[in-house]
TrEMBL record:
GO molecular function, one term: NAD binding
Keyword line: NAD, Oxidoreductase
Superkingdom to which the source organism belongs: Bacteria
Domain 3-hydroxyisobutyrate dehydrogenase-like NAD-binding: from-to ranges: 163-283
Native source organism of the sequence: Sphingobium phenoxybenzoativorans
Pfam families referenced in this protein's UniProt entry, alphabetically: NAD_binding_11 (PF14833), NAD_binding_2 (PF03446)
Residue span, 6-phosphogluconate dehydrogenase NADP-binding domain: 2-160
Protein name per UniProt: NAD(P)-dependent oxidoreductase
Length: 303
């Protein structure tokens, strides 16, 4: 079984690195630097997505949007132009379930399978081999890809037919995005009223408010003053918008989710879409008149 990977940036690169530990992997990315990093892990860089499709039975892809995925698959030098019937494309992008299903139908007519397997946990968990994998595809498709996915992480969930992985991912990310802002607000409230942020986090981790933001974001990033977590406000807002679009397309009211969407929009208007996601705490600190981050805290990844 020959494997390829298209889109080896921060997340795709981490996932492809896991695959390289047990497979020969052909890779393509618009960034020569990203490809070089994977070549150092034993991968082979190829000139185009089409070349990766032509050379492999299964091609993974991880980009920022479903529109980019469509271009990478169906474009002039896309994966589908090179892939033979019987091939499989594994979409690890955080994408739009409705677009994914449409692409799967187009590829099915070409004799190519598409399965969506987005991930949750961040690049550090991908590298560690503990990231969550959320798969959408038929039972037969899932059975085919599962042994390969197990080389990335044992935490694999078959969520249902194609598109179900993306449904799982965007609903998870809406919950995570909501928890982040609410947790930032609540800790700022406590600090404004005289509490030490470290004490607040330690107490809440033993109480009913415990969540990922307290357990990971605060303990590993906020309290030590290293705000960089490898994710931007713009990407978080994109994921929230995917969830609110899913709700609209499914005719499901999403009142709190809608407010979270607007909240991220307001923060981005102030800080910019490229700002590190934890800089949202700076926005909340300014509004509250409270200082949660230690003096000298930085979002610089090299700090």
């Amino acid at each position: 079984m020959k494997l390829g990977y298209v889109g080896v940036g921060s997340m795709g690169g981490a996932l492809a690195t896991r695959l390289c530990s047990s497979h020969q992997v052909d890779v393509f990315d618009l960034s020569a630097t990203a490809v070089a990093k994977l070549e150092a892990e034993g991968a082979k860089g190829l000139p185009s997505a089409r070349d990766v499709g032509a050379a492999n039975d299964i091609v993974f892809i991880c980009l920022q949007t479903s529109d980019q995925v469509r271009k990478a698959i169906f474009g002039e030098n896309g994966i589908a132009a090179g892939m033979k019937p019987g091939g499989m494309i594994v979409d690890q992008t955080t994408g739009d379930a409705f677009q994914t299903r449409a692409m799967a139908a187009e590829l099915e007519a070409m004799g190519i399978d598409l399965i969506d397997v987005p991930v949750s946990g961040g690049p550090q968990y991908a590298i560690a081999g503990t990231i969550a994998l959320m798969a959408g595809g038929s039972d037969a498709q899932f059975a085919r890809i599962k042994p390969v996915l197990e080389t990335i992480s044992p935490n694999i969930f078959h969520c249902g037919p194609v598109g179900s992985g993306h449904v799982m991912k965007v609903t998870n990310n809406l919950l995570a995005a909501s928890q982040r802002l609410l947790t930032f607000e609540v800790v700022a409230l406590a600090v404004k009223n005289g509490l030490n942020p470290k004490t607040v986090v330690e107490a809440m981790l033993k109480g009913s408010g415990r969540n990922y933001v307290l357990d990971v974001t605060f303990q590993r990033h906020i309290l030590p003053g290293k705000l960089h977590q490898g994710f931007t406000l713009g990407l978080m807002h994109k994921d929230v918008k995917l969830a609110t679009k899913l709700a609209a397309d499914s005719e499901v009211p999403l009142l709190i989710g809608g407010l979270v969407d607007e909240y991220y929009g307001a923060i981005i208007n102030d800080l910019g879409a490229d700002a590190e996601v934890n800089m949202a705490l700076r926005y909340i600190e300014d509004a509250a008149g409270a200082h949660v981050c230690p003096e000298g805290a930085s979002a610089d990844p090299d700090a």
